[in-house]
Specification:
alpha+beta, elongated, 11 helices
């Protein structure tokens, strides 16, 4: 469940954090468990004056123990929360514009205990274990390093491996893409919203899908790809283009966006190198199965298809306003509308492990 948080609750978090008269850089260096993050020495951590930042930092032991070579480093973004609105469900993007996460599920019922803040990427979730209040912001110590964004096929396979609910699993969509020979093309997408029907959705139209010709199947799959990155936090009704050249009609109800009057989000805002994945409750069939006016992207070579490296070194990173563009969706099932994007500065994991 995604919960909003009151002004009082947000203030309580800040007051319940370990308080320090040090700035963020000094507080990180003073904590024996955060030395790898402290070594990144992001310039904003030492800024004074009318500035405030939030740093999400995994511990040294969690960094060392991680077996995932594709990880984000420490996350830094401006605007330490002073009101409840700052802690609503948000989409947050780093300064390179290549790494986007969901700031999710602030649990007001356990505000002084671990596990109340969730940073969700396409292939993992990190939660806080403790907080440190510095004089220019807040350090949120998280339980694991945050993975880099992965290609769509990897992200969809991960989601299907960690979920058992057929409304959240997309094995049928993955198999359909593979049978059409389009996995590499899907992974080559950039700047797209992927509407991936759940296994439940495919089961409901299995006979119709089974009767499709190979060309028609490709056309149906392309109809689920929107050349625009749109998150669930600010949806408006309208018409969306798709890769196959036809359009989707989007309406909005109490549970969020509805595509062509039947498909709604069952899991929204799963970030990927392609853009964002929304798992939806229906297979969308274009009005003309034999009309395809789009162009599938050319698959990239294996050497260039890997997930992007962490964006820059500690010396070169900044935390400026901006980030990936967001269109206008209304919140998906249970999401709380957010005030906008926040920018993150990303630390380089390689620098930590080399320590």
């Amino acid at each position: 469940m995604r919960l909003s948080v009151s002004v009082a609750a947000a203030s309580l978090l800040l007051s319940s954090a370990v308080t320090s008269a040090l700035n963020l850089a000094q507080a990180l260096k003073a904590d024996k468990d955060l030395q790898k993050v402290a070594a990144l020495n992001i310039p904003q951590w030492s800024q004074t004056g009318n500035v405030s930042y939030v740093v999400c930092a995994p511990t040294d032991s969690n960094i060392t123990a991680s077996t995932d070579p594709k990880l984000l480093g420490s996350l830094t973004f401006p605007g330490a929360p002073t009101t409840g609105e700052a802690w609503h469900y948000q989409i947050v993007t780093d300064v390179s514009g290549t790494n986007t996460l969901v700031w999710d599920n602030y649990d007001t019922t356990s505000i002084t205990t671990p596990g109340i803040i969730h940073l969700r990427t396409g292939t993992g979730t990190s939660v806080n274990v403790r907080n440190i209040q510095a004089d220019n912001g807040l350090i949120i110590v998280v339980d694991k390093p945050i993975p880099l964004l992965q290609k769509p096929s990897t992200t969809l396979s991960y989601l299907s491996s960690v979920n058992t609910d057929a409304t959240l699993v997309t094995n049928s969509f993955i198999k359909a893409v593979a049978s059409a020979g389009l996995t590499d093309n899907l992974d080559a997408l950039t700047g797209y919203m992927i509407l991936a029907p759940s296994d439940s959705a495919f089961a409901a139209v299995q006979s119709q899908v089974s009767a499709l010709t190979p060309a028609q199947l490709k056309n149906v799959l392309a109809y689920h790809l929107v050349p625009k990155v749109m998150y669930s936090t600010n949806y408006n009704p309208g018409i969306l283009p798709t890769l196959n050249g036809q359009t989707l009609d989007v309406t909005v109800d109490a549970n969020g966006p509805v595509y062509n009057g039947k498909g709604h989000h069952t899991l929204a805002d799963t970030t990927t190198t392609a853009g964002v994945i929304h798992i939806i409750s229906a297979v969308l069939i274009p009005s003309n199965l034999d009309s395809f006016n789009g162009t599938w992207p050319t698959p990239v070579t294996p050497s260039s298809s890997a997930a992007p490296a962490a964006s820059g070194t500690a010396a070169s990173q900044t935390a400026s306003a901006g980030g990936a563009s967001t269109a206008t969706p209304k919140s998906a099932a249970g999401s709380v509308a957010a005030s906008g994007l926040v920018t993150l500065a990303v630390g380089a994991l390689a620098a930590w492990i080399a320590l």
